[in-house]
Design brief:
The complex is a heterodimer of chains A (about 375) and B (about 500). With about 375 residues, chain A is an alpha/beta fold. Chain A contains 18 helices and twelve strands. In chain A, about 50% of the residues lie in helices and about 15% in strands. Helix content of chain B is about 35%, strand content about 15%. With about 500 residues, chain B is of the alpha/beta class. The chains are: A alpha/beta (about 375), B alpha/beta (about 500).
Chain lengths: ~375, ~500
Amino acid sequence: MSLSYEEKLALLKINSFSYLRADWLERLLGIFGSAQEILKQNAAALSEEGKISLQTAEHFLKAASALYAEREMERTQKTGGGIVFKGHEGYPEVLLDIKEPPLALYIRGKLGENAATVAMVGTRKITPYGKRAAARLAEDLALSGITLVSGLARGVDSIVHSAAVKNCKPTWALIGTGIGRIYPPENRELALGILDKGGAIISELPYDAPPLAAHFPRRNRLIAGLSKLVVVVEGEEKSGALITAKMALEQGLDVLAVPGPIDSPQSCGTNRLIREGAAMVMDARDIIDALPVNLKAALDTDKLYAATDKPAKLIDLNEQETKIMAAIGDGSKSVDNIALETGFDIAGLSGLLFNMEINNIIYCKDGLYARNKF
Amino acid sequence: MLANIASGCIKGIEGFIVSVEVDTSPAIPVFALVGLPEAEVKEAKDRVLAAVRNSGYEPPAKRITVNLVPAEIKKSGTHFDLPIALGILAATGQLSETAVKKLKDIIFIGELGLDGRVHSCAGVLPMLISLKKLGRENAVIPVGNIGEAALAGAAGFAAHNLREVVDMLEGKIPFESAAQPAAAPAEEVKINGDFNEVKGQMLAKRALEIAAAGGHNVLLMGPPGTGKSMLAKRFAGILPPLTREEMLDIMQIYSVCSLLGKSKTAFSRPFRDPHHTISNIALIGGGTTPKPGEVSLAHNGILFLDEFAEFSRSSLEVLREPLETFKVTISRAKDSLTFPAKFTLIAAMNPCPCGYHGSNVKPCHCTPLQIQRYKAKVSGPLLDRIDLTVNLNPVHYKDWQQRSEGETSAQIRARVVKARAAQKERFANSPTTANAFMTVAEIKKYCPLPDGGGEILEAAMKKLGLSARSLDKILKTARTIADLAGSAEIKKEHITEVMQYRPLDRKGVSDI
């Protein structure tokens, strides 16, 4: 049974309210049979049948009528995307199993047939260690044929998406705004990259919904819902990444966590997950091994296994460079501190650092040097 | 009767001769002052009449007309009092024949008090220097400005009061130059502190050394409390000593602004640090009677702009002209004038609006977009004039403790002087004075790439996203580093070192 255009519009109107916790709308749909029918009712009738307060019903009708559903359709189509409706063509079936599946999904790009999906999420305040870990794992997973699912936020999410984009692999971004509005703005270019490489940007929110705080935890259930398992790279004690992990557990998915230093606030949440029983991730193989056997078979793991069997990529460092690497250690260091620890003079050290930087051994941000992902 | 007295006036920092014509005619007593006088010149009439009376002479009960020739140029300054007073005395026959004759080859400059005393006034030095060039060496100047006459090398009679001037003209006192022209200006040893007082920040110190050696502009970027202002204030101490010409240039500007202390003959490199709320006019110069702004007051010295990103966009915009042409041209409908403004710019800014981005002392509360906007404020054409950028990081107590005493300013300065000497030789036949000011042709001539240097630049452009327009700056700075190292050629390591000072050129390698 396909939906009529009018019913689609009515569903979008209802969806514009239901993305906020409103399970009573499901109930109403069951009672009245169609979205169009619901919108024909007055507030009092909705309040009585749906067992909600009159105020909520009025609020709902007002919000639903305020949405220009036709324009939503047009604008989404203009971006080359489309809107899929719950239980109808194109709607990812896995989402039907989660709690409160969205009534409609706005999709920009292609939601391919990939069965092997892994969510990688983490803190927005990423540390140099988290950057290395996320980039390294994400790259391996993307290359082996896994579709990475994340939230296009700052920090870990951005690293994960860009690792896939850099390797020309599709990745899905479930965003906490409308698909017409990329947030944070510095990720606009990344979003275009995702679309360009055959990925998708997905949201249940109206076309240009703003980045409200309430939107983000809700979309986390979709990140978990679309994935086979969830990997948390870095996360504080109370973070969105841990909400995603919680939702994944509720949905019966495996949650894996990347361990970190015990004194780093960003690793507090992940270390706790491990203590509570989450599988620990040391390389991409740990993640792939956690996937169901039938999915594993389709992956191109030859290269990956070969690559990760070695402890780390070996680089020839000369004596001075070894000293510098030792001084930089795991965190990030200023030129002054490196000079102090190695005893090199500033003029010579500047040149050495530059050479190491263009050889990809280290990188520099805001005057602080840190190891690259090797 | 008619009298004609010579005086001078300032336009910008150039002096010109003004003849003060005074005519008295039997009519209703009126004092008319014409020849485009500004307000302070117009007030001369009241001061002069009182001064004449109180010096024991008779102010005429006649119509007095004073004309300042050339009449089409606006005149400002209080120094017309003395010539007007003498003109009145001459026109009313209160001076002897000899005195009137003597008047002709002397320039008179001075403000009068009501009691007839001669007060010091602004702009004496540039006036005397310009007038000397025009062949007028003898001048009567206020005793308070005697030091300036010495600097200008002019024969100046230092006047205490009107009576004394008249006595000199009558021959009762000889016209003797009170100024000692031998007194060459000595550089004042005004130490704002020594470099070894700044603990750590070795990278920033090295950058400042390079800046001093090659005349490059610097941007210091770092959280509060990392020593940005401390370093900037000590920068003058590592610049090479002022030459006599440089010092005269500085003093002329300060003289116009009445900032030259009494009989001050010594001067150190100016250090100007205007607040970021400064108006455009105060920064660059101008006003109804155009006066030099902060950029000109920093001529041959340092302009330190703290909180660089907080300056208004238009203030930063007007800085572009002096940074490119080393002068400021103020254009008016009638004419335009030029102030010199060749300074080393030291700009300091926080890395983000809250100040703590990249600091491990306090968390930063700014969003990446805010940080990007903050940095974008100083980007573009202005950043193109800044050769060296340094990120400063906080010094921890532990590190602070183990830091050894750094080098003193004198040690650094010795190297700077050596590097400057090499540049003087290089640019002997060119108006260029330092590496930072090299023209494109000169860069081509004096900054050949060493073997393998091209590969470094290519790698830098590819890897770090350096723009092509930063290449010239890299070469100029590398030239200075080579000069500091006493190397005739630019070597590979000089180029790689420069890369350290171009963090803003980098386009996120692992930047998310």
